[in-house]
Model the fold of this input.
Amino acid sequence: MKRIIIAGTKPSARFIDGDAAYFANGAIGFYADALPVYNCVNVVASTRVLSKSFFQSLDDVYRKKWDSVAKSKPDKLILIGESNESNLSFEVSQNLREQGFQAQIEIIRPEQIVGLITSLAYLRYPILTKKFFAQSVHIQFKDFLNFLIYNFLDTHTEVKGKYRPSTGIISLLVAIVEYGNSAEYIIVGIGLNNRNLQQIKHEVISMKKLPKNTDLTPHVEADLAILRSLNKHYRISTTEPELAGVLNLI
Done:
């Protein structure tokens, strides 16, 4: 049985041997020097990670993520595109080519990701859990309006991060499409706490501040809901103790 590694950017993650690896965003830059795998795929939120570095600002954090991806040598790069009809993902891929990036580039749209969530994890989207009601009434009201707009008026509306999966879990979904039940999926570098800290190359970077106690941390509850469902149908394990404890992953 093949061992497929799903790698995120959590600092000091324990990377293990495998037959293939799927990296989220800039994680590939940290592990690139010691990859013990034969097939390498990098999954990147192009509009939220790469485009910010050269289209919207010169923010040092996003510039480092850009460099990490642009200088990597995966077998395939999957860019998560936009719901609207903009050509931003295409511009990102063009810019990468101009930087000398040679790997195959594929673009996956948000509606395709929604399809993976419903067909593999059997969950409705946006992903709403009981933790929704732990938020302040004001936040519940604003977010509920966002749900209504998305579901009934405009599916191109941006769903807030706390109700959609992280790039790491999207990487897992993409890997399952490729390997199905013929593989074991091992999660490294994707935890639950301190998600504002990320390891890019050999540096730990602090991202934006985490939300207040009245709000939910982006992606965490959506990630857990998807993992709980996937764990019923696929062989999933992790080297992250905090994740294993919550999900009972071996």
Q: What stands out?
A: The mean pLDDT is 81. The chain is about 40% helix and 20% strand. The beta strands are 2-7, 20-24, 39-45, 76-80, 104-108, 183-188, 197-200, 203-206, 235-238. The chain has one domain: 2-247.
